Amino acid sequence: MAHATDRQALLWLQEVKTPPFSAAARLEAGGLLRRLQRGEKLRMPHSRPMPAIGARCHELRVVDAGKTWRLVYRTDADAVIIAAVFQKTTPQTPPHVLAESRRRLRHYDTTADTED
User: Fold this and answer.
1) What would the CATH number be for the domain defined by 4-115?
2) d(C-alpha 66, C-alpha 51), whole Å
3) Where would I find the beta strands (DSSP E) of the chain?
4) Beta strands 67-75 and 57-64: pairing type?
5) Do residues 21 and 29 touch, judged by C-beta distance below 8 A?
6) pTM above 0.70, yes or no
7) Which residues contact 40 (CB under 8 A, 6 or more apart)?
8) Which tens digit of pLDDT belongs to each residue from 33-45?
9) Residue 81's closest CA among 96, 98, 95, 101?
10) Pairing relation of β-strands 57-64 and 79-88?
11) pLDDT at position 114, please?
């Protein structure tokens, strides 16, 4: 059984904010994020790989009262990193979300490398 100390850190990059989820969606998203923190690999329908953003990048899928939310995340050895949160309104991920996620992760990697 996993203990709280067995969890990876959960990092929200820069200006990423929690969306206005209902209580039920907040519980669902929180439960899925905890599973990721314990090292579980989520698959569809909860998570989908996002190779257009980078290695180990995925989107977490949360449906909430007729709205569909996505949390773009990357799994590193020591952390689950949230790069973007957005409401999905079209079949394709908006290009600005892809670009911003890549930019935020690049910035994180550069900053993390210089802090070591």
Assistant:
1) 3.30.2310
2) 27
3) 9-12, 47-49, 57-64, 67-75, 79-88
4) antiparallel
5) yes
6) yes
7) none
8) 999 999 999 999 9
9) 101
10) unpaired
11) 63
